Amino acid sequence: MLLHSFSRCWFLVPLLLTLLAADSKSLSGTNPGSAPRAPAGGDKGFREVQVLRGHKGAVFGVAVTPDGRRILTTGLDGTLRIWDRATGKELSHIQAHPNWAVGLAVCPDGERAVTSGNDKTARLWDLATGKELRRFEGHGNFVWAVAVSADGKFLLTGSHDKTVRLWELDTGREVRRIECPSMVWGVALAPDGKRLLAPGSEGVRLLNAATGAEEKVLKGNSLWKAALAFSPDGKRALAGGGGGQLFYWDLETGKLLHRFDGHAGATDPARIMVRFIAFSPDGKRAATTGYDATVRLWDLEAGPELARYDWRPADPKQYMLFGVAFTPDGREVVAAGVDGQVRVLQIQKDGADLGLRCGVGQFLALDPQPR
Description:
With 371 residues, this protein is mostly beta strands. It has a single domain, classed as YVTN repeat-like/Quinoprotein amine dehydrogenase (Methylamine Dehydrogenase, Chain H), CATH 2.130.10. The chain is 6% helix and 45% strand. It has helices at residues 2-9, 12-27; strands at 46-53, 59-64, 70-75, 79-84, 90-95, 101-106, 112-117, 121-126, 132-137, 143-148, 154-159, 163-168, 174-179, 188-189, 195-199, 204-208, 214-218, 225-230, 236-241, 246-250, 256-260, 274-279, 285-290, 294-299, 305-310, 321-326, 332-337, 341-349, 352-353. Strands 1, 26, 27, 28 and 29 form a five-stranded antiparallel beta sheet that branches. A four-stranded antiparallel beta sheet has the order 2-3-4-5, with no helix packed on it. Strand 23 and strand 24 (294-299) form a beta hairpin. The longest helix has 16 residues, at 12-27.
């Protein structure tokens, strides 16, 4: 039984070792985000336009407010930080959790956000005042992921305790609990709030949010899924995790449309992981981060990799990348790393700014809802 449990969770070992190392640096007063960065190399289609430094330790969650003016981040130091997108300056920060703050979702009004952490809670915050508005308690372990419905009425959480839970955002009442076969690092709620995605033993489970009934099992490979997302129209889904592969399904038929293998090329098995996913506002592209220290942009319909950014951390051991999000205009991708940095990457085509011209809309790594 112990060997079986280890075989399912082996990928946690490098993560925990890396995070503990980052934590020891932050406790000793060293901010990995302030260290000089090695020159980027191997980049294709991305141009780095901004680096945000301030977290003491790894940065997990990334979100962009619907108006595109603020970037939100959560990290190992337990803080929720608010940044001015135009200047890159930190506007304020909130001590959101005693230790690790991992999950992050911005509400549709752009004035509130939800965080989650290793204190077994999720918390709703007023971004203007820094006041905690509500606390969601009940999970028995780390709450790794959160997502808010497009109408702002519901919160979805995923935990190390092997459950996904649906809550009323305004009351804090738990309305649905779904048991999973393993720890949950990623959750997704459909734009209309009627369906959700959760990891299963044979694939990704598509569930009815109101009843918890399973509608479909989306099959790709048997490896654990760390990241899940609905398309802006709710008709497609993405999942990634162990094996470094990204899977793209049609939800009406359950058919696998594409499999993307870009993050699967690392020689070290510990680095073969898709960690976070974000749909572009028009739903035609996706951005991913992985443990191979790359950010990648994919054409979901045609299949090819459109862009790649090599993180090149100053410390080669800090290779893990976490949160990723598009800006509302679809022109930029924001990503976070274990090295304490948040980088804003402009999407390029033949050396020029690539405007996706999708109008208003947003897809967030930990809050996969259109805005």
